[in-house]
Amino acid sequence: MTTRKGHLLIGAIVVALLSVSVLVETPIEATAAPILPGVPDREVVTPVTGDPALGDDVEQTYVRLHYPSPFSTANHPEECDWISYLRYRSTKGPKDSAKADAILTMQPGLYSGAANLNTQAPQVVRKAAAQGKYVEYLSIDRRANCAEDRTGWAAAEEAGDYHVAANYYFGGAEIDGKKYRYQTPQDLAFLGEYGLALTLDDWRAVIAHVLPNEADRTRSYCGGHSLGAFLVGPMMAWDFDGKRETEADAGFNLCGGGSVPLDGFAMTDPAGLEGTGLLDEFLSTAGGFVRKGVDYLLANGLGVGQLPVIAASEVMNTYQLAAMAAAQDPSGESDLGRIVPADLRTEPWMRLFYGRDYLDLFTGSNLPRDFRITNTAALAMFFDQNSAEYVLQTGMGFYDCPVQGKTYPIPNGLASVPILGPTIFVIPQRVGFGQNYTPADKSALCGWRNYDAVAESSIDGPDLGHGPPTDQDHEVTDVHQFARSMNPGGQPTDFFELYTPIKLITDMVFALGVGRDGDLEHLEYRSGGVLDFLLHLGRWQSTPAGTRNLTLLSGDSPVQNAGLGGLLPYNAKFLPGYRHYDVVTAAEKQNNGVPELASSYIAGFITKPVS
Question: Which residue blocks in 473-520 are alpha helix, DSSP H?
Fold first, then answer.
């Protein structure tokens, strides 16, 4: 760890270099004493029922731990003094978590809540039980979810009518005297403190709660999906008490069984600065000056993705309303275009993600709301890989009507052009470009074929320019289960995290790059990386050294292209035909007759004894 003397020396050099460019007109504070880990003082457990995927062999509960974070010092709602998670366990296994054969704690992805993992969790528990092992799967609901208003969803679930939620969140209606209020970044300024240190300390507190005996933590596994996968590396490398000589509190011991990053990868020091001595200290301190400026902005109005143009919470509320409609009335005709306003908080996002051609960026005339579709098809148009652009994709079937190919952002069939097509599609094709469609007729009602009702796979496969647009090899998620998981009614947590703190992301960038001062100094156990390889012939990969790791990547995901730079661990597993969400939403029963791969890999990994 950097010494105080070293900090002063390097700090003096940086001050001289940056004296003409002051980022923040406040004095730089001396390094504070390390914040020591605490423990929750109360637990509240609530049963969760109603999901058919649980069956009679998996129990789901919602657990809340009262633990005011030492990293949250600004005024904040009392609700934000709690950590929460969804706990899944076998009904035949021990009720005491400490007696389980293994415990996997999971972090959801960017703008994702604990319900994001609803489909995968029972599958892992069930497959482990089939091997005679009783494991627990804990899906963590990050602390920022405390700022959400779930009044409308609860009322709509009780009424059995998604219009109740639409009227509350988009129509200005009151429920029991309460009215939904759009929260600005200024309203949520306290989330500007919710960075990497707070998130990892909450993760530590959950593990310490379920496994209070340090010797039991060889049965503790840490994982995550998407953004959550990238949190795994810092977690494994974190020194919670700031004392290198005491390792019981180190992340690699808290997660003593190993790590499970899904469609992302665990990194601790991708540049490999750990072994560069003075260069590492200089860059950490120099980056720290930039970080102080960034943190100042985050604490003063830029802490969350709530902007006048494109507000994350309103976009996510639109998605969740679509899921509730699909869950309550799957074959009914969608009226989202009428009940969700097309305003600046959502409209730019919808045009960027769902336009059929480039004119739609300006006219917005071929978006999901412009077609006669069922509620199920409306949800699928938002997320299916044959409709949605970029990375928010899952393979859950296809339209049940004639379709028309998109020309935005890349025309259908372009990938089939010899030489040119394969060259330009090396990366984009894995994000879904070149195989996207909309219904051909706006006047005819269009339904949706589920993942197991599309064309069977053939030796030729889908031909993007000429043949069937998809086949059963590339459709792996049940749209009805997807709707239940995303539906915020009837469950205590959301599929989405409406107010993901930007500081969590910027902290990760600084911690894994330059700027490891202050609380980021706790990223102590770094290993591997580019410079480590070039200078010392060490490990090019930056995955946590000396720990077991199961990296799973979707076969049609853009994340796997990181392998071109050698960043992926050599034993990473690929899931053929999967998209980004499919890694955690794939159906238990697959079209090819093979058990769902991601949950199978995870169950096998966490039930194998640590050698």
Answer: 479-486, 502-512
Whether residue 431 has pLDDT greater than 90: no
HSE (side-chain half, CA atoms, 13 Å) at 207: 36
Peptide bond into 77 cis (omega under 30): no
- 403-405 and 398-400: which strand pairing? unpaired
* Cα–Cα distance for residue pair 208/247, rounded to 1 Å: 14
pTM: 0.91
- Pairwise CA distance, residues 416 & 428, whole Å: 13
Give per-residue pLDDT as tens, 511-537: 998 888 889 999 999 999 888 888 888
Which residues on adjacent β-strands are paired with residue 523?
238
The two tokens of residue 337 are 């275009």
CA nearest neighbour of 148 among 119, 112, 120: 112
Q: Bridge partners of 222?
A: 105, 259
Q: pLDDT per residue over 285-313, tens digit each?
A: 889 899 999 999 998 878 888 887 889 99
Residue 337 CA to residue 60 CA, distance in Å, equals: 35
CA distance 274 to 441: 59
Report d(CA 90, CA 68) in Å as an integer.
Answer: 31
Instruction: Give CA separation, 380 vs 4, 256, 268, 395, in Å.
Output: 55, 39, 36, 9
What φ, ψ does residue 89 adopt, rounded to 5°?
-145, 160
DSSP secondary structure of 431-457: GTTT--EEES-TTS-BEEE-GGGSPPP
Euclidean distance between CA atoms 353 and 384, whole angstroms: 12
In angstroms, the CA 568 to CA 229 distance is: 12
Residues 574-594 have pLDDT tens digits of 998 899 999 999 999 999 999
d(CA 593, CA 596): 9
With beta carbons less than 8 A apart as the criterion, state whether 509 and 234 touch: no
Query: Is the Cβ–Cβ distance between 559 and 264 less than 8 Å?
Result: yes
The predicted pLDDT at position 390 comes to 77
pLDDT tens, residue by residue, 461-517: 665 555 568 889 889 999 999 999 999 998 999 999 999 999 999 999 999 988 888
Check if the beta carbon of residue 528 is closer than 8 Å to that of residue 539.
yes
Q: Which helix (H) or strand (E) holds 284?
A: helix 278-298
**362: exposed, middle or buried (Cβ count in 10 Å: 0-12, 13-18, 19+):** exposed
What SS3 state is found at 139?
strand
CB neighbour class for 263 (10 Å; exposed up to 12, middle 13-18, buried from 19): buried
225 contacts 112 by C-beta, under 8 angstroms: yes
Q: Is the pLDDT at 2 greater than 60, yes or no?
A: no
Nearest alpha carbon to residue 226 among 383, 316, 106, 105 = 106
